[in-house]
Design brief:
The chain has 191 residues and is of the alpha+beta class. Helices cover 23% and strands 45% of the residues. The radius of gyration is 24 Å and the shape is elongated.
Length: 191
């Protein structure tokens, strides 16, 4: 009976250790040389978890007739037939920034950045079917009729930080509990 309990504890400890070994790659991309159709420019960062291909946040400022900041990621959605991933951020005034990235792999796992262009000027763009062909547009409801489309720019990978998620704490707690059980058991047996 005791051997089964020890075997179960060992399996739980190994499982928790395996979870603790997993790490996420949080990558920050800088929007550089972004020029829009109206002559406006854009600057800022896009933060992605390139381990699972999700966008964590958008912090982009649009400099046009007015300056608009987009600090919060509003939503993420994908269009599998085109492998086009749309990330939409809104500011408090309701202005919208949309980042769309086309990939052939079906996900943004391992995305390393790339040139930006608009879907409206596809003759000058990389083939949307190529990995990393990216597109950006800004919608300004109050000050601009329609969409101000990006003409040029790039998303450059500026830094990647590897983080270990919460399961590491659980593994630490689990090994501590196993040690405590072992000490308590020895004290009971040696009475």
């Amino acid at each position: 009976m005791h051997k089964r309990i020890y075997a179960l504890i060992a399996v739980v400890a190994m499982t928790l250790s395996a979870l603790a070994a997993h790490a996420d790659a949080i990558s920050i991309f800088t929007l550089t040389n972004a020029t829009f159709q109206s002559g406006a420019t854009g600057a800022g960062t896009v933060t992605m978890d390139t381990t699972n291909g999700s966008v964590i946040g958008v912090d982009v400022t649009y400099f046009g007739a007015t300056t608009l900041g987009f600090p919060i990621l509003g939503s993420q959605e994908s269009e599998p037939p085109n492998n086009l991933y749309n990330f939409i951020a809104n500011n408090a005034a309701g202005d919208e920034f949309e980042l769309a990235i086309a990939v052939t792999t079906g996900s943004l796992v391992g995305y390393a950045g790339g040139d930006l262009c608009s879907l409206d000027t596809s003759a000058e763009c990389p083939d949307p079917a190529e990995p990393g062909a990216s597109f950006v547009s800004v919608v300004i409801p109050a000050n601009f009729i329609g969409v101000d489309v990006l003409q040029s720019g790039s998303l450059a990978l500026t830094s990647t930080e590897t983080t270990t998620p919460e399961p590491s704490s659980i593994a630490l707690l689990g090994t501590g509990l196993i040690a405590a059980v072992g000490v308590f058991r020895r004290k009971l047996l040696h009475r």
